[in-house]
């Protein structure tokens, strides 16, 4: 079979439905619009949000309340238990967390939380530490170093 010999399958192509071209076409008189009513008239279509004159949903709902804090800082969160994968004496930095797949982006500030256990001494560098995480790292004989530039605290 060559390209010029290819044809559409049986029943794959249909003739265009010619609406409003006389009764003998099978689509005359009302032309598929039903009998009477707003949608049977010329220009009688209504927008999708129109609810027949009843009070629209948009107007029934209360105004949106609350606000968005534009100064909020999103942290990439890591638990102390996840640091267990590093060997003792390792200096754990945001770059190292990224290369090990623990955080998605180096551009986000990192916060270490205290969930899980740690039994090896690690030197951990991050932007923020919870009090329990700081305690667990230091109790295991490790060091905690806070990196600046996460967000200016007011």
Description:
This protein is of the alpha/beta class and 154 residues long. It has a domain at 76-146: Ribosomal Protein L15, Chain: K, domain 2. The protein has three helices and six strands; from the N terminus they run αββαβββαβ. The chain has helices spanning 57-60, 94-99, 131-139; strands at residues 76-79, 91-92, 110-113, 123-126, 128-129, 143-146. Strands 1-3-5 form a three-stranded parallel β-sheet. The longest helix has 9 residues, at 131-139. It is elongated. The N and C termini lie far apart (76 Å).
The string of secondary-structure elements, in order, is HEEHEEEHE
Largest sheet: 3 strands, parallel
Strand content: 5-15%
- Low-confidence segments, given as residue ranges, are none
Distance between the termini: 76 Å
How many runs of DSSP E, i.e. beta strands?
Answer: 6
What is the quaternary state of this protein? single chain
Q: What Rg, in angstroms, do the CA atoms define?
A: 34 Å
Q: Which structural category fits the helices and strands?
A: alpha/beta
Q: Kindly state the mean pLDDT as a whole number? A: 91
Helix content: 10-25%
Shape: elongated
